[in-house]
C-alpha cells in the first residue's frame, strides 16, 4: 500500500494506492466480536489500483452475526478507481448515520455487478440508517452489470438517491498507475480534488 498525503490550506488530501490481487480491507472486523466505530470520515481521498478488485474500505466478516458497524459515516468527495469488491460491497456493516455525497465509483476491471454499501457480513437484508443524506454520487463500470450504491431494493434512508450510472467515463484523462485524472467539465465537484 502506498499513501501520499498533502495538506493545503488546512485541507488534507490523500491518494492511497493498493496493488494486491487478494482481498484487502482498510478496516476489518472479525466474526467473533461486537465492534462499532463511533465515527469514520473519509473525504477528498483517491483509492486506486488495477489489481484490487477485492477491496473493502470497511469489511465485516461474512460469519459475523453481531451488530458490527459504524455509528456515523461521512464519505464525501472520494474517488474509487478500480477499487471494489463486486457485489460484496466496499463498505459492510450496520450504519446509523450516513453522509454520502459527491463520490465517484469507477471500474473498468469489474466482471460482475458492483455494490458500494452492504449490510454486515453476507446478509441479504437491506441496510437501514436512521439519519443522514445520500445524494450526488456518480459511477461508471464496464459491461452489462448493475452499479448499486446499496444492496437490495430498500434504500438506507427514505430520501436516499441512487447512484447515477454513467454511460461513459467521467474523465477527460486518467492515469490509473498514479491515480491522477482530469474530470470532464460536467462532473466538476465530484470525487477528490488533489492538486
Radius of gyration: 16 Å
Bulk shape: globular
Main β sheet profile:
9 strands, mixed
Distance between the termini: 21 Å
Task: Output the number of helix runs.
Answer: 0
The class by helix and strand makeup works out as mainly beta
Helix content: under 10%
Mean pLDDT: 83
The strand count comes to: 16
> What percent of residues are in strands?
over 45%
- Taking pLDDT < 50 over at least 5 consecutive residues as the criterion, the unreliable ranges are 1-11
- Provide the succession of SSEs: EEEEEEEEEEEEEEEE
Write the layout of secondary structure elements.
Elements: E1 2-8, E2 11-17, E3 24-29, E4 36-48, E5 55-60, E6 69-81, E7 91-92, E8 94-101, E9 104-107, E10 114-118, E11 131-135, E12 138-141, E13 147-150, E14 164-165, E15 171-175, E16 180-183
Parallel strand pairs: 2-4, 3-5, 4-6, 6-8, 6-9, 7-10, 8-11, 9-12, 10-13, 12-14
Antiparallel strand pairs: 1-2, 15-16
